[in-house]
Structure formats: C-alpha cells, structure tokens
Specification:
single chain; alpha+beta; Lipocalin; eight-stranded antiparallel β-sheet; 1 helix; globular
Length: about 160
C-alpha cells in the first residue's frame, strides 16, 4: 500500500514538472513572436503558421518605394499589396530564441533567401543567405517603442 502511494506521488510530481516545463517553453517561444520594426521603419509580425514560424508585413515604411510588390521577379505579382504580405516562412523553432531553415523574401529587391532568426530580448537578428549562412547578410529588428497603426489587412488570417 505504501509503495502505491509513493508511486502515485512520484507520478503526480513528474506530471507537474513536465507541465511546468511545457508552460515555460511556450512562454519563451512567444518571445520571438510579436511585432518588430526593421531599420527603415517597416513593421512586421512574427508568429506561428502551423508548426512553423512566419513573418508578415503589418505596416509599411514611409520610405517604401511603393505599396505594391514592384520588385518581384514575377511580373504577375508586382501589383500585389505589401501590407499583409508573408515575407518569411518555414522557420523551424529550435528553442525559445532560435529559428532556422526558413525563407525570407526581400520586397526591396525581389529576392528570396534562406534565413534564420535569433531573438534576444527586444532584438531580433535575421540572417539571410544563399547556400550557407557564411554567404549572407544580417539585419537587426527591434520592438516598436510606440503603438503601430497597421495595415487594413490582418496578416496570418
């Protein structure tokens, strides 16, 4: 009888520890998710899309060339709106602060790159590259310091 109580106590304790770890991991993963501002002023949202992480444009920079995807190499896509456009997809979350194996579309050039993301507090470092990360460039995004008036389109819906 005593062994049964001990076994139940250990089992219950194990479930509590596992649940606490799951809650902690979910809370940490959310640190990468959210709204970010890139250096030219555009605002983007990083969030889950299925089991992966994606990136959408939620507000254009006032310095944007146009409100549409004018640099897209596919001429049939040049008229699509940048607001709400998914520019990052397929990122696999490895831990609370690292996501890799995604693709990044740069609407300023019309080029698509392999990508990885690293979150550190109010900074999100992106690395876009061709082939291997050594051959690429990085950019740092920050959390907006004030509320952002977003596009009329809700990204990710």
């Amino acid at each position: 009888m005593r062994r049964t109580r001990i076994a139940r106590w250990i089992s219950t304790l194990s479930l509590c520890v596992a649940f606490a770890g799951e809650v902690s991991l979910h809370a940490q993963a959310a640190s990468m998710a959210g709204t970010w501002q890139e250096p030219s002023g555009a605002v983007l949202r990083v969030g889950p899309c299925g089991s992966q992480m994606c990136i959408w444009i939620v507000a254009l920079s006032r310095h944007a060339d146009a409100p549409t995807d004018i640099h897209n190499p596919d001429s049939s896509l040049r008229g699509r709106a940048l607001c709400g456009l998914e520019i990052g997809s397929g990122f696999m979350l490895h831990d609370a602060t690292h996501a890799t194996d995604g693709t990044l579309y740069d609407p300023k050039t019309g080029k698509t790159y392999h990508g990885m993301l690293t979150a550190d507090g109010d900074r999100l470092d992106l690395r876009g590259y061709i082939g291997v990360p050594l051959f690429g460039r990085s950019q740092t995004w920050t959390r907006p310091s004030a509320p952002v008036k977003g596009c009329a389109i809700t990204p990710g819906d």
